[in-house]
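I am writing to request your help with a piece of structural work I have in hand. A protein sequence and the structure tokens that stand for its backbone fold form the material at issue. Please examine both parts with care and let me know of anything in them that strikes you as inconsistent. The record follows directly beneath this note.
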Amino acid sequence: MGAWPSRYFAKSHSSVTDYLIPLDFMVTCIYRNNMNKFFLVKVLACILLVSGSATASDINEFSSDGCSLFPDGTLNHRTLWCDCCFNHDIAYWRGGTEEERMAADNALQACVLDRSGNNALATTMYDGVRVGGSPVFPTWYRWGYGWKYGRGYEPLTEVELKQAAEKLDSYRQTHPSGYCRKQ
């Protein structure tokens, strides 16, 4: 059996699902080389056992920079709508479905409008996050930025919801005034 393609070893494997990609290659190699079908069953059983015991992907520690790539407020009130962006960052860090992203973006727009009274500003910020916050972009401010890149609009499991809540609680304990108050 020849060497495995380098694409399977080009990165470090951080979850069981990373190992499932080469499964098609393994099966092809086993059949091509007329290996024992019992061996194939053993290999598949091991993969299923390992994948069945896998836990949810870990979410990174929460972080916020306020209104990413945008001012947190006016010259006179430097953090006027910063809390709006901070809450938006919590939603973006956590990620989830496309509907949850839309709700987060709508909440940002409503909050900025409420704080500033400026519809053009609120709409500009809304348009910016709708265009720039897509999960397809490998940025620090994309939808679901707390998770490994590539998650997309996957809904969170109960385990992941609990994990995210614990990380957020940890952030709040170490940053009791949040991001916006420290400026």
